[in-house]
Design goal:
187 residues; mainly beta; seven-stranded antiparallel sheet
């Protein structure tokens, strides 16, 4: 009985079974956005959808691209983002040291301030007329000469070779971090 109590106390004092894991995130296939037919060789792909909206800055109302809804006011009304075409993160079965990563752990890694995200610059030319979009440089944009309220601009970002140290619990072959401070992106 004393041994069980001592073991339980040790588990409590050492983080309840948390352990440190270090390595490069592993994956079997590159991430892809099947909605817009974008395929990559990278473990993580991020679709960034921006829309031209009104915003008030320093008492002046301006049109700006924003990747989040800006609240309408009595002075102006912003349109809704297009349904089904929002910001999204794509990945397939990411693991660390042969252990699967929980969705929460993956999000903590992806959205860590030290995770380097690079813009995908080789997006394919394709027919996106159903969304009223064309390819322009490294973006898909609403057809037209000048940007107007409600126009869309889509860019993609990817993350490659993520080397991390995480403090996580292992249960059923899945690593789960308890706190964002337990995720460190290694250079």
């Amino acid at each position: 009985m004393k041994k069980i109590i001592i073991i339980l106390l040790l588990l409590l004092l050492t983080g309840c079974g948390e352990k440190e894991y270090t390595g490069t995130i592993e994956y079997s296939t590159g991430a892809s956005d099947s909605e817009l037919n974008i395929e990559t060789e990278y473990p993580v792909l991020i679709r960034n959808v921006e829309m031209v909206q009104y915003i008030k800055e320093d008492e002046e109302v301006k049109l700006v691209f924003a990747n989040y809804p800006i609240e309408s006011t009595e002075e102006y009304t912003n349109p809704e983002f297009p349904e089904g075409l929002g910001n999204e993160v794509f990945y397939n079965d990411l693991s660390l040291n042969t252990y699967s990563l929980s969705e929460e752990t993956i999000n903590e890694i992806i959205f860590n301030e030290n995770t380097i995200k690079k813009q995908l610059t080789d997006i394919p030319e394709q027919d996106l007329s159903e969304y009223n979009l064309i390819k322009l440089d490294d973006y898909y944009v609403t057809v037209g000469d000048d940007y107007q309220l409600g126009d869309i601009r889509i860019s993609y970002y990817y993350i490659e070779d993520i080397n991390v140290t995480i403090k996580a619990k292992l249960k059923d072959n899945i690593l789960s971090v308890v706190d964002s401070k337990d995720v460190n992106i290694n250079e």
